[in-house]
Amino acid sequence: MADDLDRLLDEVERRLCRLPGRGAAGHHRLGDGEEEEGAAAKEGRSAKLLMSAGSSEEDIDDIIDEICNDSSFAKTPLKLKSNSASLTPESNSAVVQAHRKRCCPVYLGGSSSPYGIGTNVSKRTCDQLRCTACDFHVSLFNDYIWDQSCDYLFFRNNMPELSKLRAKMIKKKGARAYACQCSWRSIDELTDLQTDQQLRWVCGKHAE
Prior knowledge:
The chain is of the alpha+beta class.
Protein backbone atom coordinates (compact mmCIF):
# COMPACT_ATOMS: atom_id res chain seq x y z
CA MET A 1 0.00 0.00 0.00
CA ALA A 2 2.90 2.39 0.92
CA ASP A 3 4.71 1.56 -2.37
CA ASP A 4 1.57 2.28 -4.36
CA LEU A 5 1.18 5.61 -2.59
CA ASP A 6 4.80 6.51 -3.33
CA ARG A 7 4.33 5.72 -7.00
CA LEU A 8 1.18 7.82 -7.07
CA LEU A 9 2.97 10.77 -5.45
CA ASP A 10 5.89 10.46 -7.86
CA GLU A 11 3.48 10.45 -10.79
CA VAL A 12 1.81 13.62 -9.47
CA GLU A 13 5.23 15.29 -9.07
CA ARG A 14 6.30 14.34 -12.56
CA ARG A 15 3.12 15.67 -14.11
CA LEU A 16 2.65 18.81 -12.05
CA CYS A 17 6.12 19.76 -10.89
CA ARG A 18 8.08 18.32 -13.81
CA LEU A 19 10.53 16.58 -11.51
CA PRO A 20 12.47 13.53 -12.69
CA GLY A 21 11.08 10.30 -11.35
CA ARG A 22 12.86 8.38 -8.70
CA GLY A 23 14.60 5.19 -9.53
CA ALA A 24 14.85 6.16 -13.21
CA ALA A 25 18.00 5.22 -15.11
CA GLY A 26 20.90 7.64 -14.55
CA HIS A 27 19.46 9.17 -11.37
CA HIS A 28 22.01 9.59 -8.57
CA ARG A 29 21.51 7.68 -5.32
CA LEU A 30 20.31 9.80 -2.43
CA GLY A 31 22.20 10.02 0.80
CA ASP A 32 20.78 8.99 4.12
CA GLY A 33 19.89 12.59 4.99
CA GLU A 34 18.30 13.18 1.65
CA GLU A 35 16.36 9.95 1.95
CA GLU A 36 15.04 10.99 5.35
CA GLU A 37 14.07 14.41 4.00
CA GLY A 38 12.40 12.77 1.02
CA ALA A 39 10.53 10.36 3.26
CA ALA A 40 9.37 13.22 5.46
CA ALA A 41 8.25 15.19 2.43
CA LYS A 42 6.32 12.18 1.14
CA GLU A 43 4.68 11.67 4.51
CA GLY A 44 3.70 15.34 4.52
CA ARG A 45 2.24 15.06 1.07
CA SER A 46 0.45 11.86 2.05
CA ALA A 47 -1.01 13.55 5.10
CA LYS A 48 -2.21 16.48 2.97
CA LEU A 49 -3.81 14.15 0.46
CA LEU A 50 -5.47 12.13 3.20
CA MET A 51 -6.71 15.33 4.87
CA SER A 52 -8.00 16.54 1.51
CA ALA A 53 -9.78 13.23 0.93
CA GLY A 54 -11.23 13.34 4.42
CA SER A 55 -12.35 16.91 3.87
CA SER A 56 -14.04 15.89 0.61
CA GLU A 57 -15.82 13.07 2.38
CA GLU A 58 -16.95 15.46 5.11
CA ASP A 59 -18.20 17.89 2.46
CA ILE A 60 -20.17 15.11 0.82
CA ASP A 61 -21.61 14.08 4.18
CA ASP A 62 -22.58 17.68 4.91
CA ILE A 63 -24.31 17.96 1.54
CA ILE A 64 -26.22 14.70 2.14
CA ASP A 65 -27.26 15.86 5.61
CA GLU A 66 -28.37 19.19 4.21
CA ILE A 67 -30.48 17.49 1.55
CA CYS A 68 -32.04 15.13 4.10
CA ASN A 69 -32.83 17.98 6.46
CA ASP A 70 -34.25 20.20 3.71
CA SER A 71 -37.88 21.14 4.48
CA SER A 72 -38.85 20.40 0.90
CA PHE A 73 -37.99 16.76 1.54
CA ALA A 74 -39.91 16.62 4.79
CA LYS A 75 -41.92 13.47 5.08
CA THR A 76 -45.64 13.94 4.93
CA PRO A 77 -48.06 11.29 6.14
CA LEU A 78 -49.79 9.45 3.35
CA LYS A 79 -53.55 9.73 3.27
CA LEU A 80 -54.89 6.30 2.55
CA LYS A 81 -58.10 6.35 0.59
CA SER A 82 -60.57 3.81 1.76
CA ASN A 83 -62.00 1.52 -0.87
CA SER A 84 -65.44 1.87 0.67
CA ALA A 85 -66.30 5.56 1.00
CA SER A 86 -68.21 6.47 4.13
CA LEU A 87 -71.76 7.59 3.63
CA THR A 88 -72.25 11.34 3.90
CA PRO A 89 -75.66 12.73 4.88
CA GLU A 90 -76.31 13.53 1.20
CA SER A 91 -75.43 10.05 -0.04
CA ASN A 92 -77.34 8.47 2.85
CA SER A 93 -80.38 10.51 1.85
CA ALA A 94 -79.98 9.34 -1.74
CA VAL A 95 -79.94 5.71 -0.57
CA VAL A 96 -83.12 6.29 1.42
CA GLN A 97 -84.78 7.95 -1.59
CA ALA A 98 -83.83 4.97 -3.75
CA HIS A 99 -85.83 2.68 -1.45
CA ARG A 100 -88.98 4.82 -1.45
CA LYS A 101 -91.98 3.98 -3.60
CA ARG A 102 -94.66 5.97 -5.41
CA CYS A 103 -98.37 5.31 -5.63
CA CYS A 104 -99.51 4.07 -9.00
CA PRO A 105 -102.23 5.05 -9.51
CA VAL A 106 -102.72 7.79 -6.91
CA TYR A 107 -105.96 7.63 -4.94
CA LEU A 108 -107.87 10.21 -2.89
CA GLY A 109 -110.56 9.11 -0.48
CA GLY A 110 -112.74 9.78 2.57
CA SER A 111 -111.72 9.27 6.19
CA SER A 112 -112.69 5.60 6.02
CA SER A 113 -110.17 4.91 3.25
CA PRO A 114 -106.81 3.68 4.68
CA TYR A 115 -103.53 5.42 3.89
CA GLY A 116 -100.66 3.70 2.12
CA ILE A 117 -99.05 3.00 -1.24
CA GLY A 118 -101.79 2.90 -3.83
CA THR A 119 -101.76 0.20 -6.49
CA ASN A 120 -104.35 -1.40 -8.77
CA VAL A 121 -104.58 -4.24 -6.26
CA SER A 122 -104.19 -2.34 -3.00
CA LYS A 123 -106.32 0.77 -3.41
CA ARG A 124 -104.98 2.93 -0.60
CA THR A 125 -105.17 6.70 -0.41
CA CYS A 126 -101.93 8.66 -0.69
CA ASP A 127 -100.93 10.76 2.32
CA GLN A 128 -97.66 11.99 0.74
CA LEU A 129 -99.17 14.26 -1.88
CA ARG A 130 -97.22 17.24 -3.21
CA CYS A 131 -98.38 19.96 -5.59
CA THR A 132 -96.13 20.60 -8.59
CA ALA A 133 -97.77 23.98 -9.20
CA CYS A 134 -97.18 25.68 -5.82
CA ASP A 135 -94.59 23.14 -4.51
CA PHE A 136 -96.54 22.70 -1.26
CA HIS A 137 -97.26 19.53 0.64
CA VAL A 138 -100.97 18.68 0.37
CA SER A 139 -102.62 18.80 3.78
CA LEU A 140 -105.62 16.60 4.57
CA PHE A 141 -108.20 16.67 7.33
CA ASN A 142 -110.38 13.69 8.19
CA ASP A 143 -114.11 14.19 8.74
CA TYR A 144 -114.10 17.69 7.25
CA ILE A 145 -115.05 19.36 3.98
CA TRP A 146 -114.35 22.85 2.67
CA ASP A 147 -116.95 25.55 2.69
CA GLN A 148 -118.17 26.51 -0.77
CA SER A 149 -116.98 30.08 -0.22
CA CYS A 150 -113.31 28.99 -0.24
CA ASP A 151 -111.19 30.63 -2.94
CA TYR A 152 -107.60 30.79 -4.12
CA LEU A 153 -106.65 33.79 -1.94
CA PHE A 154 -107.94 32.07 1.19
CA PHE A 155 -105.56 29.15 0.79
CA ARG A 156 -102.79 31.34 -0.57
CA ASN A 157 -102.83 33.46 2.58
CA ASN A 158 -103.63 30.83 5.20
CA MET A 159 -101.90 27.56 4.25
CA PRO A 160 -100.74 25.62 6.15
CA GLU A 161 -101.96 27.22 9.41
CA LEU A 162 -104.80 25.08 10.71
CA SER A 163 -106.05 27.75 13.10
CA LYS A 164 -106.84 30.00 10.12
CA LEU A 165 -108.12 27.21 7.88
CA ARG A 166 -110.72 26.17 10.46
CA ALA A 167 -112.71 29.27 9.58
CA LYS A 168 -113.95 27.53 6.43
CA MET A 169 -113.88 23.88 7.48
CA ILE A 170 -117.20 22.10 7.94
CA LYS A 171 -117.51 18.93 9.99
CA LYS A 172 -118.72 15.93 7.99
CA LYS A 173 -118.32 12.31 9.10
CA GLY A 174 -116.56 10.04 6.59
CA ALA A 175 -115.27 12.91 4.40
CA ARG A 176 -111.74 14.20 3.96
CA ALA A 177 -110.65 17.73 3.07
CA TYR A 178 -107.52 18.12 0.90
CA ALA A 179 -105.69 21.40 0.19
CA CYS A 180 -102.39 22.88 -0.95
CA GLN A 181 -101.69 26.58 -1.47
CA CYS A 182 -103.43 26.77 -4.83
CA SER A 183 -106.00 23.92 -4.96
CA TRP A 184 -108.47 22.21 -2.61
CA ARG A 185 -110.92 19.30 -2.74
CA SER A 186 -113.54 17.67 -0.49
CA ILE A 187 -113.64 13.88 -1.02
CA ASP A 188 -116.22 11.38 0.25
CA GLU A 189 -115.24 8.16 -1.54
CA LEU A 190 -112.23 6.53 -3.18
CA THR A 191 -111.25 8.55 -6.27
CA ASP A 192 -108.49 8.06 -8.83
CA LEU A 193 -106.50 11.30 -9.03
CA GLN A 194 -106.18 10.95 -12.81
CA THR A 195 -109.90 11.63 -13.17
CA ASP A 196 -109.36 15.23 -11.98
CA GLN A 197 -107.22 16.86 -14.67
CA GLN A 198 -107.12 20.25 -12.95
CA LEU A 199 -105.17 19.02 -9.95
CA ARG A 200 -101.36 19.12 -10.15
CA TRP A 201 -100.84 16.74 -7.27
CA VAL A 202 -98.39 13.85 -7.38
CA CYS A 203 -97.22 11.20 -4.94
CA GLY A 204 -94.12 12.40 -3.09
CA LYS A 205 -93.01 8.77 -2.40
CA HIS A 206 -93.54 6.59 0.65
CA ALA A 207 -90.96 5.00 2.93
CA GLU A 208 -91.09 1.21 2.81
